[in-house]
Amino acid sequence: xLDYFDFDMQLSAGSSADSDAEYKFLPQTPVxxxxxxxVSGNTPNELSVSVSRTFHPYTSFNNRAPDIVFISRDDVxxxxxxxxxxxxxxxxxxxxxxxxxxxxxxxxxVATPEPANVLGIILHIVYGLxxxxxxxxxxxxxxxxxxxxxxxxxxxxxxxxxxxxxxxxAACAPLRPIDTYALAAKHDLIDAAIAASAHLLAFPLxxxxxxxxxxxxxxxxxxxxxxxxxxxxxxxxxxSHLPSxxxxxxxxxxxxxxxxxxxxxxxxxxxxxxxxxSE
Length: 279
Fold this sequence. Notes:
Layout lengths: L3 E8 L11 E3 L4 E2 L14 E7 L15 E4 L4 E5 L1 H7 L3 H4 L13 E3 L4 H12 L10 H10 L7 H4 L5 H9 L4 H10 L3 H8 L12 H7 L1 H22 L14 H21 L5
Parallel strand pairs: 4-6, 5-7
Antiparallel strand pairs: 1-2, 1-4, 2-3, 5-6
Helix pairs in contact: 3-4, 6-8, 7-8, 7-9
């Protein structure tokens, strides 16, 4: 899961936690935030909030400090750069970005409807950062893929081979290959589907349920079947070639070669009887 940490904030003088107060960090990164209740044990003028370990107040991009704060549905703060988000999104991040910034030194804060684990993956995609080390679940990745278009991102564009989102899906394939393949198929992510298919060679196609087949869809279901059939046919082709015949020698006569050919044919028949695509 993505990591967060608590960050102590200090309320401005004369404000209370129960009012629409302006909160600012003890350093030089003030921010307007929603009303919060001080954590038990803090002084009356202090407030503890959860902040992303990757997108914290000192996150630097091109030697620039963050200029906007995204707040997840579960109240985790993400400090990012508006220009970076605008460059990656086709619709101004679902039109959530402000048209004008505050001029009183406070960073604008944007509340988003997504939980922190989903918002974190989206922002990793924006910055081109790997999120595999955080180990988000396949369900979290699925939820992220579902909302990416809503925020102006193309799943196909950001899930090409070698990109963080594709690597994230590929990391799920060894443990949940068919579910990963179905998710890639749902969003037509061919590179992620190819990565997952490498772990499906031993998957029993007869165990596919109607629900799973529906999730995979006809196109990717056909590709999965043809992968299995193609592997078996390739094995048949390789084994169907008998050992090359050669002139008699003292060590190997024509009779011995014919015996070898018969033994080879019997061995191939035995192998192909139980052969599967994972052989």
